[in-house]
Write a structure and sequence with these properties.
By secondary structure, the chain is of the alpha/beta class. Helix content is about 45%, strand content about 15%. It has 2 domains: about 10-105 and about 225-275, 3-Layer(aba) Sandwich (Rossmann fold), CATH 3.40.50; about 110-220, Rossmann fold (3-Layer(aba) Sandwich). Helix 1 crosses helix 11 (about 220-235). The protein binds D-glutamic acid. D-glutamic acid binds near residues 80, 199 and 200.
């Protein structure tokens, strides 16, 4: 089905499988407070990280179409799994036929772009969902942009469920954080920079940092993606002029709205009122 081209401006769409993208939205809204944003969390179908390529692609495309129908001209996939498994196909196959004037951006490339400024040893670690790590998207992007850097990935299948269930600060989280941190550092003890390559992981950042050896820095993506988006809008006035500027943030979720609001309010540090939608 064709998405109708609407010429008026609309909010910037921010999409994640669940709550994780809020860690990106928070930084984007802090950096670019003048724009309107529409956040979509597909909480009813999260986590995406253990799902197959085809399913993540199908779910992500449904979300992008929904955000386009709401008037978004620019959508940020604030989800590494969706960026790894769906972004390229959406950009190359779906956008040209559905909405050639609209744009969908991801979080992997902006993160990889800044790496040389962060590492001294040139050894990078990536924590991600099983889907992101299996896709080897970080390895490929790093090899393309910075061939002298080395990259080791570690899948952390238990971290998203801990966050989605409000257990990020619980004692049980320590066990699983230490387990995956130790595995990565055993793999390459020269690593000095670790990408939190899943937008849920900043919620575990203090625990992750606690178990990393001294001198190894865990890097969250929120500020990096916000900086990259600011730069993108400055370089693309034809997209920027179609981003409405009322300074308002709206939230929609595929799960129960009251359930979303409780945890989302904690993530955002303010009261959130969302609406439930069906994709
Ligand atoms: N927050 C997402 C990511 O950045 C996905 C987590 C999930 O749904 O598994 O990968």
């Amino acid at each position: 089905m064709e998405t109708k081209e609407i010429k008026v401006s609309g909010p910037i769409g921010v999409f994640d499988s669940g709550y994780g993208g809020l860690t990106v939205l928070r930084e984007i809204a802090r950096r670019l407070p003048g724009y309107d944003y529409l956040y979509l969390g597909d909480n009813a179908r999260a986590p995406y990280g253990t799902r197959s390529f085809d399913i993540v692609y199908r779910f992500t495309l449904e979300a992008v179409k929904y955000l386009f129908d709401c008037g978004c001209h620019l959508v940020v996939l604030a989800c590494n799994t969706a960026s790894a498994k769906a972004l390229r196909t959406i950009q190359q196959v779906d956008l040209p036929r559905l909405a050639p004037d609209r744009r969908v951006l991801g979080v992997i490339r902006p993160t990889v772009e800044v790496l040389p400024a962060l590492t001294r040893t040139g050894h990078i670690g990536v924590f991600g969902t099983p889907g992101t790590i299996a896709s080897r998207s970080y390895d490929m992007e790093i090899a393309k942009l910075h061939p002298t850097l080395s990259c080791r990935g570690q899948a952390c299948p238990m971290w998203v469920p801990l966050v989605e269930n409000g257990e990020a600060d619980g004692e049980g989280a320590d066990y699983f954080v230490k387990k995956y941190v130790d595995r990565l550092m055993c793999d390459d003890e020269m690593i000095d920079t670790v990408i939190l390559g899943c937008t849920h992981y900043p919620l575990l950042a203090s625990k992750i940092q606690k178990y990393l050896p001294a001198g190894v820095r865990a890097v969250s993506q929120g500020e990096i993606v916000a900086g990259s988006l600011a730069d993108y809008l400055a370089r693309h006035p034809e997209i920027e002029c179609r981003c409405s500027a009322g300074g308002e943030i709206k939230y929609v979720t595929t799960e129960d709205a009251a359930k979303f609001d409780g945890l989302a309010s904690m993530f955002m540090g303010k009261e959130i009122k969302s609406t439930q939608i069906v994709l």
